Automatic annotation (TrEMBL):
UniProt cross-references to InterPro entries, sorted A to Z: IsoCit/isopropylmalate_DH_CS (IPR019818), IsoPropMal-DH-like_dom (IPR024084), Isopropylmalate_DH (IPR004429)
Cofactor dependence: Mg(2+); Mn(2+)
EC numbers: 1.1.1.85
Keyword Amino-acid biosynthesis included in the entry's annotation: yes
Sites where the protein binds substrate: 96, 106, 135, 223
Molecular function terms from GO: 3-isopropylmalate dehydrogenase activity; magnesium ion binding; NAD binding
Site (Important for catalysis): residue numbering on this chain: 142, 191
Protein name (record): 3-isopropylmalate dehydrogenase
Domain Isopropylmalate dehydrogenase-like: 4-352
Organism of this sequence: Anaerotignum lactatifermentans DSM 14214
Length: 355
């Protein structure tokens, strides 16, 4: 089949890691007889330099016309002195809004070969880990009413946590759909013992669960979830939660995997459309030196195949190739340990394609 992918190389190491990810996609296309059509578009600092704005309308249009978006990273020292609303990173918020990306998906995968880098005790993570955090991205306290007012205790500030039924429903559906493609378990995280918004959250998630009789649903309070994630992370498969809890939990979960160079992510809209990108930034300190780890971006393309295109066999092939390359002892500098074989960005990409 033919798939259209808008490609935002971006700044810093973005073009380097995206370059390797496209080689991996080309390898998949050849082996499984698909056609991936890439439309390169500008966003971030390179767009500011070329056309004077970080997110040109042409980029938004091309992304909307595509089946999925692959993004490297944006930003860098060169643009750090620009005022906040003119900076390259604004392109990310603009893309989320324009493309209506309401679900942020961050897997925390621990590869056996990298178990050394995991801060948890070996017996807790034995056999590896594979958790996905599904975070609501466009609602909750980060988008609620905010302000200040005078009180008897001095100036007060407030931010409102608010969720509407439809907002909870769509993120719950995303999580349950994902669970159906995985191990059929969802843990919904809230603070329903205290927050009214969490009680609505819990009620709606429970209703959505009725459409997925094969999936086991469990509810946890956020404080307990944060604790369980380090105490016994293997109990989790898909975690679904609101914007602020998800922000914190996804960072906590990601630390289990060791390096930021290994972490992929997806931001999904209705109808399986998604934007896929590594969790890391543009790493200006190592840009242009063939030192960046391309695996986070390569694993992001695996997520694209799995979640937007429904190509799970192909996605497995990419993830297994990454695992094999690691198991054979190849390491980019960020995950290098003594006795391993040090490789650069391009060589890491080539090895993954070969596998
Ligand atoms: P960063 O993630 O770019 O770098 C943090 C540290 O991790 C650096 O030492 C870097 O060398 C290392 N690192 C990151 N990715 C790596 C990879 N693939 N392989 C090996 N090492 C890697 O975060 P930082 O330094 O805070 O931000 C740099 C720029 O990126 C800033 O302009 C920031 O605003 C932007 N940024 C962009 C994001 C995006 O496009 N989604 C996300 C985060 C930051
Ligand atoms: Mg965060």
């Amino acid at each position: 089949m033919k798939y259209n992918i808008a490609v935002i190389h971006g700044d810093g190491i973005g073009p380097e890691v995206v370059g390797e990810a496209l080689k991996v996609l080309d390898t998949i296309a050849e082996k499984y007889h698909h056609e991936f059509v890439y439309t390169p578009v500008l966003a971030g600092g390179c767009a500011i330099d070329a056309v004077g704005e970080c997110l040109p309308q042409a980029t938004i249009d091309a992304c909307k016309a595509a089946d999925a978006v692959l993004l490297g990273a944006v930003g860098g020292w060169k643009w750090d002195t620009l005022p906040g609303d003119k900076r390259p990173e604004r392109a990310l918020l603009g893309l989320r809004k324009e493309l209506e990306l309401f679900a942020n998906i961050r897997p925390a995968m621990l590869f056996d070969a990298l178990a050394d880098a995991c801060p948890l005790k070996p017996e807790i993570v034995e056999g590896g880990l594979d958790i996905v955090v599904v975070r609501e991205l466009t609602g909750g306290i980060y988008f609620g009413e905010r302000g200040t007012k005078d009180t008897e205790l001095g100036l007060a500030a407030y931010d409102v946590e608010q969720y509407a039924e439809e907002e909870v429903k769509r993120i719950a559906v995303t999580a349950f759909d994902m669970a159906m493609k995985r191990n059929k378990k969802v843990t919904s995280v809230d603070k329903a013992n205290v927050l009214e918004s969490s009680r609505l959250w819990r009620r709606v998630v429970t209703e959505v669960a009725k459409d997925y009789p094969e999936v086991t649903l469990e509810h946890l309070y956020i404080d307990n979830a944060a604790m369980q994630l380090v105490r016994n992370p293997k109990q989790f498969d898909v975690i679904v939660t609101g914007n602020i809890f998800g922000d914190i939990l996804s960072d906590e979960a990601s630390m289990i995997t060791g390096s930021i160079g290994m972490l992929p992510s997806a931001s999904l809209a209705k109808g399986n459309f998604g934007m896929y990108e590594p969790v890391h930034g543009s790493a200006p300190d190592i840009a242009g030196q063939d030192k960046a780890n391309p695996m986070a971006t390569i694993l992001s393309t695996a997520m694209m195949l799995r979640y937007t295109f429904g190509l799970s066999e192909e996605a497995d092939a990419i993830e297994n190739a990454v695992k094999t390359v690691l198991a054979k002892g190849y390491r980019t500098p960020d995950i290098y340990t003594e006795g391993m074989t040090l490789v650069g960005t391009k060589e890491a990409g080539r090895l993954i394609c070969a596998e």
